[in-house]
Amino acid sequence: MKYLSAFCLWLIAMGPVTKAKAQSLVPNYEFRGVWVATVDNIDWPSKKNLSVAEQKAEFIQLLDMHQRNGMNAVIVQVRPAGDAFYPSKLEPWSEFLTGKQGLPPSPLYDPLEFMITETHKRGMEFHAWLNPYRAVFNLLTSSVSPSHLTKTHPEWFLVYGNKKYFNPSLPEVREHLGKVVRDLVTNYDLDGIHMDDYFYPYRIAGKEFPDEKYYQKYGKGMNKEDWRRSNCDSIILLIHNIVRSVNPHIKFGVSPFGVWRNKSQDPMGSDTKAGQTNYDDLYADILLWLQKGWIDYVVPQLYWERGHKLADYDVLLDWWNQHTYGKHLYIGLGIYRAGSNPAWRNPNEIPNQIKALRNYHTTQGAVYFSSKTFEKNPNGWSDSLRNNYYRFPALPPPMPWLDNSTPTAPLFEKLAGNKVKLVYKGDKKIKAFGIVSLTLNTEVRFELGQLLLVVPASKTAVIDLSNLPDTKNKRIFAVSVDYDNNTSPMIELK
What we know:
- The protein folds into two domains: 3-389, Glycosidases (TIM Barrel), CATH 3.20.20.80; 411-492, Immunoglobulin-like (Sandwich), CATH 2.60.40.
- Mean pLDDT is 94; it is low at 2-24.
- It has helices at residues 52-68, 95-98, 111-121, 149-152, 171-187, 212-218, 224-246, 278-282, 286-292, 313-321, 349-358, 381-389, and strands at 31-36, 73-79, 125-130, 134-136, 157-160, 163-166, 192-195, 251-254, 297-298, 301-302, 328-333, 365-368, 411-415, 419-423, 430-439, 450-456, 460-464, 474-482, 491-492.
- α1 (52-68) packs parallel to α3 (111-121) and α5 (171-187) runs parallel beside α7.
- The chain is an alpha/beta fold.
């Protein structure tokens, strides 16, 4: 997904910035995610033909690394090209798992169930990332199973460049993708469904996407651009409705290219000069989806440095903050760009981007592309996150339109050795306890304290207060955390 759109880095221009509201504390609520790309074995698994034991070991190592760095979510690509990283009756096993599309892992296991379990064990969220329309990643090299839909329903697909795509205009395609999403949200304990920037494909110079005959059949008097956008609108609304009806606690988010429209095309657009945009080229009307409440969060891919001559990170950060429509905004940060030019050799680039996004109360976090980059600790950025910016844990921010009720506060009993046992007896299910410090004479409110520890638990947990960091002259409290990240009233431990 992400690095494949890096060719668009030169497409953007500068715009105005406005003052933003600053926060004084490392936020207790902040989405800190990492994209884990499986297509072409970018992040996981590292090779197509690893044993099951090696696949599991790699994913555990990946999770442990991100947990150490302070992350609280992974966004894992489970459907890279009309295939699956889980047993599916709808689509074949992915070639990026076993080396041959349709070939199950041996011994047989469910990679998705395994990944979700390991992620939740660490108190992190798992968002299932689907590529909506890519069907064959590379026409020359991809393994394609006889059971793949391009073989069983060739009439559903269009060839553009060296790839094969689901035809977004076909009702049968939308129905199929709806079935894929319904299967996932019904059978797996997911925290989110996530789609990337590939709706209609990025334009290839001199080549038109070959959908004219379908436009003639389904266009219904619309111009072709509006018709294409309506096709994307339809699938987003369908998925929204499926997720809400099956499990309304699962979030639905989209990660678009960094520019919606240019101001030259639309007064609402950013003051940019993008050669391609979401609205006019990918036919993804992100702002409509936010306005209508069809998506819960948006993660624009802002992979340009601060002060870029054509694409100042700060300019686009400000524009997106003006167009959230009350939904969550997480900023896509291009850590993969480390070392690519003088700005990205500057160890302050990512830290300064984090500080800038934290200045906006309408930005609730960041997502990094991609996982593998962290293994090399580029510019010391893993160290910066672990020791500074993400030194303290954070909970993904709750979404009040999904659930705004609060769980019951925990009870506790003191044990020997400065330990306490937390006990939850409320009716609402919880996923963790949070331990919070508060400076003396400060109002007892979760957002005014500092979250020190998140302990995954459903009923009880034992906490050693001696091991908590930064507690000198502080009051210590506990809260219950439900599955929507709502916190209970605070109860003082000491």
